[in-house]
Specification:
The complex is a heterotrimer of chains A (288), B (98) and C (347). The relative contact order of chain A is 0.11. Chain A has an eight-stranded parallel barrel, surrounded by six helices. Chain A has a two-stranded antiparallel ribbon with strand order 9-10. Chain A is built from twelve helices and ten strands. Chain A is an alpha/beta fold and 288 residues long. Chain B is built from two helices and four strands. In chain B, helix 1 packs across helix 2. Chain B is globular and about 35 Å long. The model of chain B has no long low-confidence stretch (mean pLDDT 93). Chain C starts with 6 loop residues before the first strand and ends in a 9-residue tail after the last helix. Chain C is of the alpha/beta class and 347 residues long. Helices cover 38% and strands 21% of the residues of chain C. Chain C contains eleven helices and 14 strands. Chains A and B meet through helix 1, helix 2 and helix 3 of A and helix 2 of B.
């Protein structure tokens, strides 16, 4: 099972970050060619990401490249660099509708053919950053078999909503989080929560992690390496949860051996979603 | 690929390098490297730079490098960026960007 | 990531913006003055105020300051990167920089190398490990054997009978003479015109090599004061830089033993420069051997010393009959062709 708790942003133009991000062992590394890179440095950053993707230090990581929008001067070149560099996933920013995913899919297939990657090998993650993106999140999440995740980007979304980011329970993000998460679950893909910008405020960060985890998000986008460990610890199951998960899997295993279709544990039915959940708990426990 | 103008790429920051490329008036390829780790890695840096230039078919030009302990992949990327900026190449030939 | 708090922007001294006031304050906190020639600044903002700046004058970095509480390697290197990138955008790749000697390590981190130093006062650095070496190698290929080898540097704005006399006299006293023409485009006549006039004017002299100018001989970078003649006083330190470059690099490459210079009755900057020449070429301690300075008296026409300044003044008036007494035939022909009706000198 692929864990997607932490997705660490690495600015494509920052050699220091690019050379050290793997040390922090996030589940996924996202090389950014979009907002973190000034227009005059896009060309150089694109080559940095292309080279970093092929560096042995990143071989064991799931890699994402956030490209610029396809209708910019940079987007198509970014896509070439990401696919030819071997990125597992391309992240499309500011996704508004499913057509954009299908357009991206077409270009990805063309580039895959040209460079000898199997067609369909490159997966897609959509970032939802607007009210209409949230409304279309189900069709976006199901637009392509390449889709593996959607992420909510809070900053632009809240501007679009005429809302301000608050502390506490963050009611201003509740609808978008719920809608995106629901779309992800319906499409059986992952969902990432917003980034937390104030890197000096661990408490606020952990409060937000608790909200996302409680809602059911697989993980969160991170802008600072030190947030990786904090997040992993917050996502780590308790000993009771681990114990329970082990018993669920043992019960399922024994039922399977006995050829029983259905089994119950402590009076509760153990069905496939419960088994999936238990596997996730053990995977998180192992990685914590 | 022909170097037709001066260009730079990279930064002076740690783990990075600043690459300066200029047309050569002598018709040769000159590589000058300054590095904080020249004693341990000077030869390797020079090899990576030369290979990267070879792959781009750059046979003439003056290349000056100020290295702050960059990884090979960063060296390749910055050299490629500087050369592309110094040439009039519009379309990238990705096969050459080894 | 960690560096996201620093914002870099450009600020132009010509806009009298509130940012420029902040830059001025930052400079004065660092015992620096806003130099008049700085065309543009890179400034770094954090927490809503300017915490660092670096100015650019053509190909020379000046007015570099970082607020005390922000001194740190990371900010400094980002500032250096930004000003070098800005220079590149403005077409300048070979850059110079003046530093106080104790700040030398700071600028080494920017990829600058010390060229010459006036002890306790100022160091001139440039950002190429090879440019000066290659220039000297080029000069060495024109090295001539001899016990007395002369050097003359001319701006020749334009070439007069005074210059002609100086070069003839110097060539007569040496086995070989090297003549350099100032390259900087800061004079009434273009470098190409000035060079051509010197070339024609010295053509009859056999034991002479005429060299194009370079950034390393009386250029805006090595000797900014030379081109700012309105400044009444010229800092000796600046002239020292230019002269030490000559003594330590250029003269050894060509084996120059004597530097010839015209006595300067009018121009206080050049007059001071002539005196500085004796100090830096003959007297001050240096790893390079001393070079004898020979001051050649001015030739006169109708009792008054000949000078290029006077030629330009007469040209403004269109007074060709008097110009004819001051310049050789080659220069006269050029002036008559190029400015048949005289010219009004606006600068």
């Amino acid at each position: 099972m692929k864990l997607r708790r932490s997705m660490l942003f690495v600015p494509g133009s920052n050699a220091g970050a690019l050379s050290t991000a793997f040390i922090y062992k996030p589940d996924t590394i996202m090389f950014d060619l979009e907002d973190a890179v000034a227009p005059s440095e896009k060309d150089s950053a694109r080559l940095m990401v292309f080279q970093a993707l092929r560096h042995p230090a990143y071989a064991e990581f799931e890699t994402v490249v956030r490209i610029n929008e396809l209708d910019t001067d940079f987007g198509m070149k970014d896509l070439e660099a990401a696919i030819r560099g071997g990125a597992h996933i391309v992240r499309l920013p500011k996704t508004e509708n499913a057509d954009q995913i299908r357009e991206l899919e077409g270009h990805a297939a063309r580039i895959e053919k040209a460079c000898g990657r199997p067609v369909g090998d490159t997966k897609i993650m959509a970032a939802i950053e607007s009210a209409s993106g949230v409304v279309n999140s189900v069709s976006i999440a199901t637009a392509s078999p390449r889709m593996v995740a959607i992420a909510i980007a809070g900053f632009d979304y809240l501007v679009d909503m005429h809302a301000k980011r608050s502390n506490g329970s963050q009611p201003e993000l509740f609808y978008a989080r719920a809608a995106i998460l629901n779309a992800a679950r319906a499409a059986r893909i992952c969902a990432y929560d917003v980034v937390y910008g104030n890197v000096d405020d661990d408490e606020g960060f952990l409060r937000e992690v608790a909200i996302a985890k409680g809602l059911g998000f697989d993980g969160k986008s991170l802008i600072h390496p030190k947030q990786v460990d904090l997040l992993h610890r917050a996502y780590a199951p308790t000993p009771d949860e681990v114990d329970h998960a082990k018993r669920v899997l043992a019960a399922a295993e024994s039922a399977h051996r006995k050829g029983l279709g259905v089994v119950s544990l402590d009076g509760k039915m153990v069905d496939p979603p419960v088994i999936d959940e238990a596997q996730m708990v053990l995977a998180r426990a192992e990685a914590a | 690929m022909k170097v037709i103008r001066e260009a730079i790429a990279g930064t002076l920051e740690s783990s990075d390098l600043l690459v300066k490329v200029a047309p050569s008036d002598k018709g040769v390829r000159d590589i000058v490297i300054r590095s904080e780790v020249i004693k341990q890695f000077g030869k390797q840096i020079k090899r990576v730079v030369a290979e990267t230039l070879d792959n781009l078919s750059v046979s003439e030009g003056a290349v000056e490098i100020d290295d702050k302990g960059a990884l090979d992949c960063v060296i390749r990327a910055r050299v490629q960026a500087a050369v592309l900026r110094a040439s009039d190449t519009q379309e990238l030939n990705w096969e050459k960007l080894k | 990531m960690e560096n996201s708090t620093f914002e870099f922007r450009t600020v132009y001294p010509s806009d009298s913006s509130p940012e420029m006031e902040e830059v001025r304050n930052l400079l004065s906190d660092n015992q620096l003055e806003l130099e008049t020639r700085v065309e543009v600044f890179v400034v770094c903002e954090a927490e809503g105020r300017i915490i660092a700046c670096a100015g650019l004058d053509h190909n020379t970095i000046k007015c570099v300051a970082v607020a005390d509480e922000w001194r740190g390697v990371s900010l400094s290197l980002q500032l250096g990167t930004e000003v070098i990138k800005l220079a590149a955008q403005r077409g300048q790749f070979h850059l110079f920089l003046y530093s106080r000697p104790h700040n030398l390590p700071f600028f080494r981190g920017w990829g600058f190398y010390p060229l010459v130093q006036v002890p306790q006062l100022v160091v001139l650095m440039d950002n190429s490990p090879t440019a000066l070496r290659q220039y000297c190698a080029k000069l060495r290929s024109q090295h001539q054997q001899g016990k007395t080898i002369g050097g003359v540097v001319l701006n020749a704005n334009p070439f007069t009978r005074g210059h002609q006399y100086l070069v003839e006299k110097a060539a007569g006293e040496c086995e070989w003479l090297h003549v350099f023409v100032v390259k900087e485009e800061a004079s009434l006549f273009s470098y190409a015109d000035r060079f051509a006039l010197v070339q024609e004017g010295v053509a009859p002299i056999g034991n002479l090599t005429l060299h194009p100018g370079s950034d390393y001989i009386i250029s805006r970078a090595t000797f900014p004061g030379y081109f700012l003649k309105e400044q009444a006083t010229i800092d000796h330190g600046w002239a020292g830089i230019d002269l030490l470059l000559f003594r330590e690099y250029i003269a050894p490459a060509l084996g120059i033993t004597h530097r010839f210079v015209g006595a300067e009755p009018f121009d206080p900057v050049t007059n001071q420069y002539n005196r500085d020449m004796k100090t830096w070429l003959e007297q001050s301690s240096s790893p390079a051997p001393p070079i004898a300075v020979v001051e050649v008296p001015r030739v006169t026409a109708s009792g008054a010393p000949i000078s290029a300044t006077e030629v330009r003044r007469l040209l403004a008036q269109g007074d060709y009959s008097r110009i004819e007494q001051l310049v050789p035939a080659t220069t006269m022909q050029f002036l008559e062709t190029k400015y048949p009706l005289g010219m009004s000198i606006s600068k």
